[in-house]
Amino acid sequence: MFLYIYSTVSLLTLHIHIIIFNISKCPAAIFDYLRNVYHCEVVRILFARDKNGPGMSVASRQHSQESFEQAPMYVAVMTYLGFGIVTLFGYFRDFLRAVDLEKCHVAQERQEQKDFVPLYQDFENFYTRNLYMRVRDNWNRPICSLPGPVFDLMERVSDDYNWTFRLTGKTIHNVINMGSYNYLGFAENNTDFLKTVADVTHQYGVGVSSTRQEIGNLSIHEELEKLVANFLGVEASMIFGMGFATNSMNIPALVGKGCLILSDELNHTSLILGARLSGATIRVFKHNNMQSLEKMLREAICSGQPRTHRPWRKILIMVEGIYSMEGSVVRLPEIIALKKKYKAYLYLDEAHSIGAVGPSGRGVTELFGVNAADVDVMMGTFTKSFGAAGGYIAGKKELVDYLRNHSHSAIYATAMSPPVTQQIIRAIKCIMGNDGSTEGERIRQLAKNIRYFRARLKEMGFILYGNDDSPVVPVLLYMPGKVVAFAREMLERKIGVVVVGFPATPITEARARFCLSAAHTRAMLDQVLHFMNEVGDTLCLKFSRRKYSSQPDLHE
């Protein structure tokens, strides 16, 4: 009965939103006010664009291509209302569990251990047991095929409201993959393309079972490091077997106590973990906000360390090339200018940008036309554009030599698997055109897909975040009920999407995150767009109040 009431209230909330959405099209006073506010914002944006003029710099032009449109006020109100209703029912169900009127499935303390220090904090698990469990079927879906542009899913159902799942034995075939980081389409099983990988597997096996400092240093590891350095245009590079550990285990080797880290507020968890493990002082500046960064740099130089006011041993600025939740691109030329002005160091994480942006896939340094030597530490991963695993650190030879002797990943971690190493070599050679293929062919296809997909979604009326060159395309859904409904409706139409909500995003900015690939055909994208338009109308997801031309180049 309580579950019926809970579902009824959630459905009522969705109907109230649809009513308000339709009312918004009428000339009511509150919506006239919202339209006036929006009109002022458009005038401001247009004025800023005209002020830059046609001769604006690459950095200014890239920044002007980023969009972070705000939703109407009623959307925020309905989002908070939805979370409020779900939270109230969560506390009510916790009460029912406490008095044994509802069975508790979640892990809890044993009765004889009630006086011990609690192992499971009830409040910390509140979101998991009362909110996440209701929608858990939208994540961790079992895939039973190659995760290329399409894949197969194993169908599963739950008999206890997502606490457990059982497989039905059926397979959902040819689901279009819009969630994987397969930017250049190298997650493939073409035997002609993978012949060199198969040969290396026969020669070296699949594992090394040793660190590179002992007996795990293979010739193909050194070949890959030279190839990465040549590809990036730097003196040297070093590879690691895990992308996450490339950040979390190397940052502590570069900075420590007495050092200052200035970190973008939207940096990845691996960067945050590495900064915390280092013992350095961490200060967070607003996302891509140069005024906030410069203010912190100026204060750091003027005031020095707390209490002692001694100068900082190092000041390290940590940013990402493309931010994976927002789809925004770092303002690299301006950050380099600030770094030089205040004698700081720059750590650039290109996990999502290397291979995906720039005319030849060399990342944001190529996109902005800056010198790679101006970036002190270049980091990237092979897990996305290269269809493999692991990561790298690149820069001056002194930096790489230092990390070989001080990095925990270099000293204690097992060396990269030989077939993975060869897959990365194959991918980089293909990007560079060294294997006989046309240089940059996949990169150009990816860029076409990105522009086409983003432009069509904007025309439909969806609110998108990020840069027009970013392969990460966040579509804002806002309300928790819509997030769940969107993922389920798209899967019914054989479209696999990734939906993200609180606490991974701000509470009012839940979204679906699309990842474009060079392997997506125009027919695939048109099919996804067709169903996006259909589901967007059904769930009332078209919140944008801006008008976009079908020919943006002519419009500009």
The tally of beta strands, per DSSP, is 15
- CATH class label of the domain at 191-432: Alpha Beta
State the strand order across the main sheet.
Answer: 4-10-9-8-7-5-6
The CATH level-2 architecture of the domain at 191-432 is identified as 3-Layer(aba) Sandwich
Tally of helical segments: 20
Globular, elongated, flat, extended or rod-shaped: what is the shape? globular
Low-confidence stretches: 1-9, 14-56
User: Beta-strand level of the residues, as a percent range?
Assistant: 5-15%
CATH topology of the domain at 191-432: Aspartate Aminotransferase, domain 2
Largest sheet: 7 strands, mixed
Based on secondary structure, the structural category is alpha/beta
- CA-CA gap between termini: 57 Å
Classified in CATH, the superfamily of the domain at 191-432 is Type I PLP-dependent aspartate aminotransferase-like (Major domain)
What does this 3D model show about the protein?
It holds the Pfam family Aminotran_1_2. Its EC number is 2.3.1.50. Keywords: Acyltransferase, Endoplasmic reticulum, Lipid metabolism, Membrane, Pyridoxal phosphate, Sphingolipid metabolism, Transferase, Transmembrane, Transmembrane helix. It is found in: Endoplasmic reticulum membrane. By secondary structure, the protein is of the alpha/beta class. The chain has a domain at 191-432: Type I PLP-dependent aspartate aminotransferase-like (Major domain) (Aspartate Aminotransferase, domain 2). The chain has 20 helices and 15 strands. The chain has helices spanning 2-23, 29-52, 58-64, 73-98, 126-130, 195-204, 219-232, 243-248, 251-254, 269-278, 290-303, 332-341, 364-368, 397-406, 408-412, 418-432, 441-460, 480-492, 522-539, 552-555; strands at residues 66-68, 150-157, 166-177, 236-240, 260-264, 281-285, 315-320, 345-349, 377-381, 391-395, 465-467, 472-478, 495-496, 498-500, 510-515. Strands 4-10-9-8-7-5-6 form a 7-stranded mixed beta sheet, sandwiched between helices. A 3-stranded mixed beta sheet has the order 2-3-13. Helix 10 links the parallel strand 5 (260-264) and strand 6 (281-285). The longest helix has 26 residues, at 73-98. The chain is globular.
